[in-house]
Amino acid sequence: MKRSIAVTVAALVALVFAATASAANWSFVGTNQVASTPTSGAGYPVPAGSRVPEAGTCREGPFNANHSESWIAVKPGTEDLVGSAKYFFDKYSTFYMFYLGALQILDGTPSGNNQIQGYDCLSTGTNGQLNQDMPPSWTDTTDPNLDFDTGDGGRAPVRVYQTMLPFNSFFDATKLHPDGEIDVSYSDDMGRHWVKGNLGKALEPPNNASAKQLGHVEDKQWIAVNHIVGNVNQDHVYAAWSVFNGNGGQIKVRLAVSRDRGQTFSKAVTISPPNEVGPAVTYVYPEIDAAGYLYVSVVSFPPSGGSHTIYVARSTDDGRTFTPEHALPQRNRRELRSESDVSGPPIPHLRGLGRHTVGREVHPIDGRRFQLDDSRGRERQR
After folding, report:
1. How is 215-262 classified by DSSP, letter by letter?
2. Most buried residue among 12, 141, 179, 206 by CB atoms closer than 10 A?
3. Fold annotation for 2-381
4. Measured between alpha carbons, how far is 182 from 113 in angstroms, rounded to an integer?
5. Helices vs strands, H then E, count in the chain
């Protein structure tokens, strides 16, 4: 457990030093501006004396507390952006209860924000009735990631996508189920309204197991979209995630592809052969290069501990097959900042390797889940 935390802290320290070293050459323009404002939606209250909610108690309420983890995407060819972050439910951030929200930033000016619909009792309800079924109502959604398509080359509204990880609170003596699933949702109006893709079906379905299970735990999801106008794979959507299979360090990376702008996805396949990358890989990042080829980077954690390795594979046939995984040379993290820093094929920027310092964590070696205390950094392990 401590090894996992140390790795994350090292990544953060490296990013801080890298930013500090290069900041002297930056020309700053403008000023920071708060993009979020208090909004409302629905979520689960936590009963007095408990740390987890109870099924059937979802209600309307405010999102007027802290925000955590964030990502932002720029609509190609414009000054319009969509952001996403974790919005803690209600007026306080006492409990681990949050949902992803979307922020609209039009022509560089924040214009609104809202809960991403489809994962709570209010937005999935009908005729004014709250939907208490679990799913589609979950206690949390997490880990923001966004990317745009081209709007079918200008013939349709430009669409923004996000790979979603809804899950149920797993603390203490929770009786909630299922544990979680992987979805892709999309918006045609800059994140104001969201629709669950793949005809409303999960890419990695839940098995109705308890939220306390150690096996088949989804996490570390990401999205990439080919927004190269005229490319043979234009507007194809690539969703990737990790599945943690309990004690013993068995972690596999999964990938699903949509070739109809998110309406349907191919059956998810495992793209992390253990004979090439080892049995425990996570932190998956798909990315598209200028030729429209798909790259996927992962981090391998040896079950016995020791140094971890970053691998990259390339697909030239739209995610159907991949080249053998290419191991990056073992170098100082401060030097692994961009595509020009490594030998071999181009790789995605190593963005956000430390983005889960506080949050829902799955230990890469033994599959245990834990939370870090957001005030003192202390580890809270289930």
Report:
1. SSEEEEEEEEE---TT-TTTT-EEEEEEEE-STTT-EEEEEEEESSTT
2. 141
3. Neuraminidase (2.120.10)
4. 23
5. 3, 22
Buried b (16+ CB within 10 A) or exposed e, 276-315: ebbbbbbbbbbbbbeebbbbbbbbbbeeeeeebbbbbbbb
Work out whether the CA dihedral 184, 189, 190, 194 comes out positive or negative.
negative
Is residue 121 within 8 Å of residue 130, measured between CB atoms? yes
Q: What is the pLDDT along the chain (382 residues), one digit of tens a residue?
A: 333 323 333 333 333 334 444 556 777 777 788 889 999 999 998 888 777 788 899 999 999 988 889 999 999 999 999 999 999 998 777 778 899 999 999 998 999 999 999 999 999 999 889 999 989 999 999 999 999 999 999 999 999 999 999 988 776 666 765 678 999 999 999 999 999 999 999 998 776 665 555 556 778 999 999 999 999 999 999 999 988 876 656 888 999 999 999 999 999 999 988 888 888 888 899 999 999 999 999 998 877 777 788 999 999 999 999 998 888 876 544 443 333 333 333 333 323 322 222 333 444 434 444 333 333 233 333 2
In angstroms, the CA 281 to CA 353 distance is 13
